[in-house]
C-alpha cells in the first residue's frame, strides 16, 4: 500500500539548519515530523563495543530501518511523479502533491504550470540513495556513531547550520567562522536531512546527473558511482570521495545484510 503524500511531507520536511556545509540555506515550512521506526527508538552506545566487527554490524542494523523508510517514501513519490508526467489533466490532489514536491525539493513550478522540463528535473531529485552510500557517509562523518555530534546531537552526516544557537559549536572551528553542527530530535531526522540535502542542494547536482544517466542507461544505481558527485561534501574533495568509495568497498558485508 502506498503511503500518502501527507506522510511523505511530514517525513521529509526539515528546518533550514539541515543544509550541507558551505552551501546557502533555504528555509522551508515545517510539518510535524514522523516518528522513527520502532527499531530506531533505542539508540545503542556504539562506543561501548569492544569488538570492531560487532560495532559496525550494530551501527548498520540501527540505521538501516530509517534509510529504508525514507527511501520507501521517496519511491512512492517518484512513482506518482512518473505517472503524472504522462497525464494531461491534473486533479486538485495532484496539484497539491506537485506543489509539495516543488517546495520540498527547491524546484519552483513555472508560471505556465508543470512541463516536461520540470518533470525531468523533479525526477532527478526525487530519487533514492543507495544504502551503501548513506551508511558509508554516516560511518565516516560520525565515527561509526561515536562522535559527540552523533551521541549528543543525533547528527550522523556532519551537516551544519548557520544561526547562532542552532546546534553545537565545534571545538575545532576556525576563527571567524560561525557555523554550528546541526542538532536533530532523533537519528531519523538526521537521515531525512541528509536525503533532502543531497537530493536538492545545487552542490550535488553532479550526483543527481550521474544517477539520472544510470537510470537512462538501465544500469544499477550504486553508491560507488554516486560518490563521484560528492566532491563538494567535504573540503577534502577527491580525497573524501575516495574515502567514501573505500568505505563502501571494504564494508559491503555490513551494508548488504538485513
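^ Assign residues to that structure.
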Amino acid at each position: 500500500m502506498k503511503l500518502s503524500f501527507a506522510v511523505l511531507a511530514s517525513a521529509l520536511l526539515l528546518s533550514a539548519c539541515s543544509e550541507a556545509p558551505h552551501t546557502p540555506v533555504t528555509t522551508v515550512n515545517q510539518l510535524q515530523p514522523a516518528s522513527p521506526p520502532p527499531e530506531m527508538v533505542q539508540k545503542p552506545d556504539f562506543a561501548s563495543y569492544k569488538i570492531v566487527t560487532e560495532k559496525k554490524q550494530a551501527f548498520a542494523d540501527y540505521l538501516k530501518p530509517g534509510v529504508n523508510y525514507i527511501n520507501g517514501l521517496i519511491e512512492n513519490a517518484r512513482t506518482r511523479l512518473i505517472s503524472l508526467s504522462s497525464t494531461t489533466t491534473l486533479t486538485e490532489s495532484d496539484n497539491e502533491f506537485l506543489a509539495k514536491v516543488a517546495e520540498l525539493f527547491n524546484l519552483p513550478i513555472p508560471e505556465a504550470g508543470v512541463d516536461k522540463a520540470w518533470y525531468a528535473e523533479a525526477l532527478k531529485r526525487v530519487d533514492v540513495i543507495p544504502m551503501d552510500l548513506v551508511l558509508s557517509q554516516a560511518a565516516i562523518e560520525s565515527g561509526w556513531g561515536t562522535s559527540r555530534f552523533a551521541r549528543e546531537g543525533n547528527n550522523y552526516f556532519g551537516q551544519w547550520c548557520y544561526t547562532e544557537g542552532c546546534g553545537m559549536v565545534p571545538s575545532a572551528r576556525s576563527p571567524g567562522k560561525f557555523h554550528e553542527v546541526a542538532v536533530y530530535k532523533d537519528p531519523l531526522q538526521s537521515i531525512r536531512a541528509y536525503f533532502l540535502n543531497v537530493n536538492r542542494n545545487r552542490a550535488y547536482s553532479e550526483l543527481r546527473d550521474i544517477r539520472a544517466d544510470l537510470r537512462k542507461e538501465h544500469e544499477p544505481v550504486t553508491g560507488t558511482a554516486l560518490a563521484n558527485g560528492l566532491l563538494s561534501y567535504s573540503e577534502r574533495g577527491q580525497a573524501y570521495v575516495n574515502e567514501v568509495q573505500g568505505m563502501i568497498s571494504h564494508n559491503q558485508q555490513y551494508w548488504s545484510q538485513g
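The longest strand covers residues 180-182.
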